[in-house]
Design brief:
- By secondary structure, the chain is α/β, with parallel strands linked by helices.
- It has seven helices and 17 strands.
- The longest helix is centred in the C-terminal third of the chain and has 21 residues.
- It starts with a strand and ends with a helix.
Length: 302
């Protein structure tokens, strides 16, 4: 029996555990994969307080060490269900059942992948999902940005300010982002927009060196020599198993505000799984702190 069970061990979940343990609450963190969340894919993090430069995996290690030293329990298990009640029950894929007074859902959101060979090989080492996080590493280099929505165009604009050349590759025959953003990009001399085209393959080499693109109408293929590639084709929240407890928006994110509350007493949400305009490590940890404090107050009121 725990005071708080946290589903998800990214920055939001780990920060929530730290705050909960400092409030002397017993805590169990459950995650189906390696702890750290999306930051483990980033080779360098230079926009998080206290560290001038640190790898994402190292930052995650620091966070995990902190919660372990404070006495939180951790288990690698996939949570498939949370049952509400005076005592909440958290069920895992392995058939284990854990009880608690409050639950914090910090499930995160995963970046959509292209789903092609060699992609996993270069993620974090040539392939990135965040220009804000990793764009500076490609100063005066040639990159491709895959995607054509608002987020993709904003990332491309950011990259164009420091990169030698930026290819924007969109599978549709037109960009779907705001015209204002498109106009900014088309005025940049170092940006080339390629529509009606998909990434056909990633060159298999020791280091990331380029991609082959395919025109979906003509069937023509072309190799682009690149130093890096940014994929911005959307995020996928994994919140479906908990929709009975917390309302979802049309995109599948928890429809919760900055207070991290849900429609179910004793159930809180935090991090990238929540509806929000900015998804960064700093905003995830902020959510974790808010959710943990709210959970502790809830438990104290019982």
């Amino acid at each position: 029996m725990y005071d708080i069970i946290i589903v998800g061990a990214g920055p939001a979940g780990l920060c929530a555990a730290t705050y909960a343990r400092r409030a002397n609450k017993s805590v169990l963190i459950l995650d189906k994969a390696a702890f750290g969340g999306q930051i483990t894919y980033s080779p360098k993090v230079e926009n998080y307080p206290a560290f001038e430069s640190i790898s994402g995996s190292e930052l995650a290690d620091h966070m995990v060490s902190q919660v372990l030293s404070q006495g939180a329990d951790v288990e690698i298990e996939n949570v498939t269900e949370v049952r509400d009640g005076d005592i909440k029950k958290v069920i895992t894929e392995d058939g284990n059942e854990y009880e608690c007074h409050a639950v914090i859902l910090a499930c995160g959101a995963k970046h959509r992948h292209l789903g092609i060979e060699n992609e996993d090989k270069f993620i974090g080492d040539g392939i990135s999902f965040c220009a804000v996080c990793d764009g500076a590493f490609y100063q005066n280099k040639t990159v491709a940005l895959i995607g054509g929505g608002n987020s993709a165009l904003q990332e491309a604009i950011l990259l164009s300010e420091t990169c030698k050349k930026v290819y924007v590759i969109q599978n549709l025959d037109f960009l779907t982002g705001e015209k204002r953003l498109e106009e900014i990009l088309r005025k940049r001399g170092n940006v080339e927009i390629i529509t009606g085209t998909v990434v056909d393959s990633i060159k298999d080499s020791e280091v990331f060196s380029g991609i082959t693109i395919l025109n979906t109408q003509s069937g023509e293929k072309k190799f682009l020599e690149l130093d890096g590639m940014f994929v911005a084709i959307g995020l996928e929240p994994e919140n479906g198993a908990f929709e009975a407890l917390a309302e979802l928006d049309s995109f599948g994110y928890f429809n919760s505000g900055e207070d991290c509350l849900t429609k179910t007493a004793g159930v809180f949400v935090a991090g990238d799984c929540r509806k929000k305009s900015v998804r960064q490590i700093a905003t995830a940890t902020a959510d974790g702190a808010v959710a943990a404090i709210s959970a502790c107050r809830y438990i104290d009121s019982l």
